[in-house]
Every structure is written in structure tokens, then in C-alpha cells.
Amino acid sequence: MNKYSASHFGSAFPVTPHELSPTRTVPSHIVPPPYASTGYVGNPPMVLTLHDEDTISRMRASCRLARQILDLACLHAKPGVTTDEIDEIVHEAIIAAGAYPSPLNYSGFPKSLCSSINEVICHGIPDSRPLQDGDIVSFDVSCFLDGVHGDNCGTVTVGDVDEAGVRLVKAAEEGLMAGINAVEPEGCLTSIGAAIHDVADSYGYSSVRKYCGHGVGELFHTPPFVKHFRNSDKCMLMPGMIFTIEPMFVEGNQASITWDDNWTAATVDGGRAAQFEHTILVTDDGFEILTISD
Ligand code: MF3
Ligand code: CO
């Protein structure tokens, strides 16, 4: 508990950094994204991409794989299992499918999965901390298959979680679905943030401002950057655009700090966070959720 903690939310004990296992390797037959060897990502291009049919069909496959692996990660979220063990499962399964785990060495990220527990908002690094009964944990799974990235995230409860935690997880998923339902060709990017903000308000949660959804395709993070709160980013949505929507809802204040590992983002006040993410294609008559399993 720190001086910002309020008694009516948060978990009993703050999440602390644990040990990292040695860096996992990727066999040479897997085609890696350009940053894999150096960690260097570079600035995103300033253009909006409308993807062609070939890229869209490759995105369908990559996103479907990302979904299957996310489901696998969630299945293993049990008390006593470490997030490093889940990282290993995810790493091996992505490679077995012929893909590269996108987070690995992305700007130096050390693991193949992001795992974010309780008051950790996003970009948590899998380590030797065993999941505990009552934790909520989000897994962000992304993979690079056939030249394109698929990206999705979900939050699950571990063992018995209190009602407040279950409600937070439900609200975050509802926020994502409201954002997705605001997507339409010739619609506006601002509608997505507004729809998500409405859901957060209706539950009394805050939607995190620092981290946004993003265009995704051959590059992991490109425009459009998708805010999960009311905003004035007037940008017309057009068929062929592909981007993620990935709201993070928190119990208290949305302000965040980054741990000394330079990645882990946590709430300042100890309130818990939940996140859901899909990769979305804008179509001629609405949208297609690419990160679904059939
Ligand atoms: N998958 C995350 C997203 O939703 C990005 C993770 S970057 C990493 O955009 F380096 F932390 F993996
Ligand atoms: Co994303």
C-alpha cells in the first residue's frame, strides 16, 4: 500500500518485479520482423494504409493465430503458475505455428508475451511470480506470421476473484465491444473513444489515456492511433484500414507510472486494471473482427 492507496479498491499486496528467465530463442526457419535482431523499431510512417486483399487475407491468418494463442495463455492462468511459464507456452506455440512472437525484442522488450497483473495496466514482463488466487491478469499476445502482425489481449480472473474485480473485467470487455461497434466506413475515429468513455463512465471506471490502439499490418504500430476516451482526432474511417482497439479500464485514477524496467505500466493509486483488445478491419458495410477463432 502506498500513500495514494484507497481502501475500497486495489489488491491486498502490490505486484512486485520478480526474476526473468534467460532470453528465449527463435529457430532460424522462422521469418522475424526487422527489429528482431537489433531491437530498433524506428518512427512509424505518417501515412494511413488501406490494405489490399492479399494483406487482408494474411492479416486474417495472423490475427486468428494470435487469438488461438491468447486463448491458450488464458487457459493456463491458474494459481501457482508463473507468468514466465505462460510466456514459454506462448513462445513455443507461436513458433510451432511458424510465426514470430512480436513482443520479443520489440524496442528491447525481453519476452514473447505481455502479462499484466492487478494494478499493472499493460506491458508487464513475464517473470517468476506465481499467479495467486484472486489475481486478475491480462495477456497481450501478438505474432508476426507471413509478414504481418496480429494483436490481441484479454483479461482473466485467477481462482476466486472478488466481485469488484469481476465487474472491472466485464466492464473493460464491454468497453472494447462498444468501441468496435462504433466502427463504420466514413465514420469518425472520435466515435470509438466516445463510445468507450461512455461505458467507463457508466461503471465509474477511468479509461487509461497514455496507451492507445494503433494501425497494424506489416508494421506493429502505425497510424491511426486510437484513443480510448473522448477526443477530437477527426479522422475518417475507410474500408481497408486495420487497427486495434484496446481499452484499459482502471478502478481509480487513470494516472500511471512506469517501473524501473522501463516497460511495466502500473496505476499510481494501486487501483486494478483490465484490458481487452481486438484487431479490426474496416469493411464496406461495417467492420470485421480479425482476432477471432472460428
Ligand atoms: N501488444 C501490445 C499492443 O497492444 C504491444 C506490446 S509492445 C511490447 O500494442 F513490446 F511490449 F511487446
Ligand atoms: Co495493440
From TrEMBL:
Reactions the enzyme catalyzes: Release of N-terminal amino acids, preferentially methionine, from peptides and arylamides
Binding residue positions for substrate: H123, H221
Origin: domain of life: Eukaryota
Keyword annotations: Aminopeptidase, Hydrolase, Metal-binding, Protease
Residues binding a divalent metal cation 2, per UniProt: D151, H214, E246, E277
Domain Peptidase M24: 58-284
Listed cofactors: Co(2+); Zn(2+); Mn(2+); Fe(2+)
Co-factor binding comment: Binds 2 divalent metal cations per subunit. Has a high-affinity and a low affinity metal-binding site. The true nature of the physiological cofactor is under debate. The enzyme is active with cobalt, zinc, manganese or divalent iron ions. Most likely, methionine aminopeptidases function as mononuclear Fe(2+)-metalloproteases under physiological conditions, and the catalytically relevant metal-binding site has been assigned to the histidine-containing high-affinity site.
Membrane-spanning residues: none
Binding-site residues for a divalent metal cation 1, renumbered to this chain: D140, D151, E277
CDD domains, sorted: MetAP1
Protein function: Cotranslationally removes the N-terminal methionine from nascent proteins. The N-terminal methionine is often cleaved when the second residue in the primary sequence is small and uncharged (Met-Ala-, Cys, Gly, Pro, Ser, Thr, or Val).
Protein name in UniProt: Methionine aminopeptidase
Organism, as annotated: Triparma columacea
